[in-house]
Amino acid sequence: MPKELQIPDRETALLLDELKKTLELDGDVVEFGCYEGDTSVLLADVLRNSPNKWLYLYDSFEGLPAKTAEDNSADGWRFKAGELKASADTVRHKFRKYALPEPVITKAWFEDLQDSDLPERISFALLDGDFYQSIKTSLKLVANRVVPGGVIAVHDYRNAALPGSAKAVSEFLAENSESYSLRIIASIAILTKNL
Ligand SMILES: C[S@@+](CC[C@H](N)C(=O)[O-])C[C@H]1O[C@@H](n2cnc3c(N)ncnc32)[C@H](O)[C@@H]1O
After folding, report:
1. What are the sequence ranges of the domains in the chain?
2. What is the CATH number of domain 9-193?
3. What digits encode the pLDDT tens for the residues 134-191?
4. Could you say which of 73, 95, 121, 178 would form a disulfide bridge with 27 (CB–CB 3.0 to 4.6 Å)?
5. Residues with CB under 6 A from ligand 1
6. Angstrom distance (rounded) from CA 137 to CA 139
């Protein structure tokens, strides 16, 4: 498995634990912002014994979009538009290298995705689009598809360099407090759909 991950090892282990807890649920697994697929292959590895679950990956493969005011931080010089550009072929190659079933890869800006691009039911969603608008859009896309007991994991919730992630999650919870509850593990917000 790859060594240099966008999500640090300890957080990845915690994420995979959360994924494992959802394996008995109906629904598929999605990752919004897969970049080079380093975390995606680890998600797929956990899914090896769950042949009914498909992995869906979404990315612009053009890198990050432009920031909005909600993303401003003291680290403003980092995370520029166009950074973190990867290619879907790099991701496919990684899946082949580890002999994993090929995921469903959609190259698009999250904001341009249609309902039909997403699976009907989602048991686990990893949202890792870094910026306010990207997290906000991906939350909106997945929220109604998550099955009871299912999880939305939002990366960078506790990352002072990327404040848009926490802002998008707070706004989401303000509107969905009846249907989702929040836990925080490391820098990740774990939103569990209530039973
Ligand atoms: C931090 S990287 C993801 C890292 C990946 N999850 C991992 O663990 O290796 C963020 C990715 O989100 C993508 N992204 C951010 N906002 C997006 C948007 N609005 N639409 C499509 N892709 C977006 C970027 O292209 C980039 O590849």
Report:
1. 9-193
2. 3.40.50.150
3. 999 999 999 999 999 999 999 999 999 999 999 999 999 999 999 999 999 999 999 9
4. 121
5. 5-7, 33-35, 38-39, 59-60, 63-65, 84, 86, 109-111, 128-131, 134
6. 5
